[in-house]
UniProtKB/TrEMBL annotation:
PANTHER family: CELL DIVISION PROTEIN FTSA, CELL DIVISION PROTEIN FTSA-RELATED. It is a peripheral membrane protein. GO terms for biological process: FtsZ-dependent cytokinesis. This is Cell division protein FtsA. It comes from Geothermobacter hydrogeniphilus. Belongs to the FtsA/MreB family. The lineage of its organism: Bacteria, Pseudomonadati, Thermodesulfobacteriota, Desulfuromonadia, Desulfuromonadales. Cell division protein that is involved in the assembly of the Z ring. May serve as a membrane anchor for the Z ring. The gene is ftsA.
Amino acid sequence: MSTKRENLIVGLDIGTTKICAIVGSATEDGLDIVGIGTAPSKGLRKGVVINIESTVEAIRKALQEAELMAGCEIKSVFAGIAGGHIKGLNSQGVIAVKNREVTQEDIRRVIDAAKAIAIPMDREVIHILPQEFIIDDQDGIKEPLGMSGVRLEAKVHIVTGAVASAQNIIKSCQRSGVDVADIALEQLASSEAVLSPDEKELGVAMVDIGGGTTDVAIFSEGAIKHTAVLSLGGNHLTNDIAVGLRTPMAEAEMIKQKYGCCLAAMIGKDETIEVPSVGGREPRVLSRQLLAEILEPRVEEIFTLVNREIVRSGFEDMIASGVVLTGGSVILPGMPELAEQIFNLPVRRGVPQGIGGLIDVVNSPIYATGVGLVKYGSRNLQTKNFSIGQENIFDKVIRRMKDWFGEFF
């Protein structure tokens, strides 16, 4: 295995409910998934690290499991970042082209001009994603290098996050004994794994419903147009069940996974479930319909908030190919059906595509972000080679985030 170690890429999805490490190997044909490790996550709340010790413990466990399966040693990872502190905004910059032909230096300058916006001290730029370039009056240009013109304009999507949250993710990884090669926004990673190029071109909204957050990414004409993170997720569903059925959280989670359904109309009238009680009381038998009546309003609320976010972004008319749902919570029966009622658009569940290796193992919305981080990492390794020196990892990651463009071309 040691001979193949150079082209191994590891994605680390640090989620609110689980931490998942996925090892991919770059082959001639693309990417093979060769190892996977998961551990329950206890140190995060709504996508943000609140307890470094517990997070480190869980990361170690997930990495060990993945190392065993892949038969390798993991040295560095591509980590995902999420949480309500993430903000995305669109910006543009204009420059004069020096020699009437666009060079790499011109592209760098125009992106610099586009990112010259006021960002508060406690926030850091995580991604600068070019949407399109405009030369003189010709718009819709994806790759301006070498084209003739006198005026170059760039439209970009800038994603910023709280510095402290990014630092805590990097700290947690370092204490687990691995370097962070880069940090990527979780919904961008998920969209790498579950969306097809056609969907991104036609226009699509990807909704990743995790344990602590719901992440939204809107694509149109092949470029990212809008990103948002809502602090609602599958944990709220579990909490509602625990309160509504008066049962402990752990049992509520099991009931959700085993019997949950978020459309009461899909359930037969006579279906029942057994619910364990709190404090050693006898378990009770309740109608499964009752469970659906607890879940349906909450899922409806999540979708309504997402829909409001899409309308607010102004891109609601651009998502012709519909909505793709991914993330662990969308395994619940009735999710796509309920979403179609609220969005009035075609909806499908998204699972990782375009990979080889352990396909059957990762063939679930749960692993979308992990597989996406591997795909993100492999593309960035192909386009840019970077050396990991001895400098402070945080400065290095931040500097590279600022240096890297064309991430999404």
